[in-house]
Amino acid sequence: MYTRRDIGKLALGTTALAAFPVSKVFAADGVRLGATTWSLRDLPRIPGQDNIDDLIKPLKSAGVTEIDLWSYNTEPAGPNTGPGAPPPPAAYPIKIHTFSKEEIAAAMLAARNLLRDYRLRTPPKPSYDSQTGAYNVVMNPIKLPPTNFYETIRDRFAAAGISVVAYTVKYDDTFVDEEIDVTFQQARALGATSITAPGTADVVKRLAPFTEKHQMNVALTDFTLAGALPSKRFKINADIGAITAANGSPVAWLQENHDSVAQLTIKDRRRNKGLNEQWGEGDTPIQDVLRLVKEKKFMFPIFAEYDYLGLGTPTEELGRCMDYMRSAIA
Questions:
Q1: How far apart are CA 173 and CA 139, in angstroms?
Q2: Inter-residue contact 206 to 230 (CB < 8 Å)
Q3: Residue 188 domain-assigned (yes or no)
Q4: pLDDT grade for 21, boundaries at 50, 70 and 90
Q5: Is 158 found in the same domain as 114?
Q6: Greater confidence, 153 or 98?
Q7: What is the span of the domain harbouring residue 182?
Q8: 156 within some domain
Q9: Are residues 28 and 165 in the same domain?
Q10: Where does a domain end: 92, 117, 137?
């Protein structure tokens, strides 16, 4: 087990660790075990609200102390575009409205625009009514967050003994630069040391100036970029399930590329682009990877991700994943 002095020496003496600060939280015999909140994506959401409080209970139940927080959890849920619930029996049944593809697309676009307004704290704009010649202010159905909202999220997790280590943002072409800038501010306010992001070339190019501006690191999700990272601000979020599905060896890959790793994501997949399986039933050598981390004393966080079709609730399945990791390094 490391003392604080040992950890300080390692952090000062290792270039790879300098860009990705070491957490104060250690568990399971020195190995940092945590979870992604994507694992709890099936928890019910209320349109227009975040679900931070709904996350905390299952995370605590599973013994999670470090998380990679999905930005979706901090933002208001979008509208429900699925089929409506069947009406109760009646003498004159009510016809259920089925949304067309065009209606769904329009609703999703409107939700995306509202989300941008939410992130940028854009006040409602007046619209001109050509028939009446008047300007009407359409109230934003999503309440804009207070300026310290993300600090309060950090505090809510902290009060439950949970640290936000990473912040996942799924950037795409719809993001404007101002939105990207805001997500880096959010990550900083949450106390995260890195942002987990898709690893496309376009994303890397657009994020690069923001990593320097905010002195924030980015963990790319494409493990094949390990040898082509543009700066010390970029590392890899190594999904060992994805490495397995690409017919690679997660153990060999980690031995060769550990200096480029910001964090590990644990899944169990079949080889040859196979699907996610319940842990222990796929081809991913989860136990061997975790034992290597313990043996080599790698100090990056390891996040369980429940992403298979389990028989239990998301809370139960995440608990099983955490127990599996703990037993692997016991």
A1: 27
A2: no
A3: yes
A4: very low
A5: no
A6: 153
A7: 4-80+149-328
A8: yes
A9: yes
A10: 137
Considering the domain architecture, whether residues 41 and 132 belong to the same structural domain is answered as: no
Distance of alpha carbon 199 from alpha carbon 322, whole angstroms: 27
Helix (H) or strand (E) holding 9: helix 4-13
**Residue 94: pLDDT band with limits 50, 70, 90:** low
**DSSP codes joined into one string, 161-224:** T-EEEEEE----TT--HHHHHHHHHHHHHHT-SEEEE---HHHHHHHHHHHHHHT-EEEES-GG
Is residue 88 included in any domain, yes or no? no
pLDDT per position as a tens digit, 45-93: 888 789 999 999 999 999 999 999 999 999 988 666 555 555 566 666 6
Beta bridge partners of 218: 195, 234
Q: Provide Rg for the chain, Cα atoms.
A: 22
Secondary element (H or E) of residue 303: strand 302-304
Q: CB-based burial of residue 160 (10 Å sphere; 0-12 exposed, 13-18 middle, 19+ buried)?
A: middle
> Using one digit for the tens of pLDDT, what is the confidence trace for 132-167?
665 555 545 567 788 899 999 999 999 999 999 999
Domain count of the fold of the chain? 2
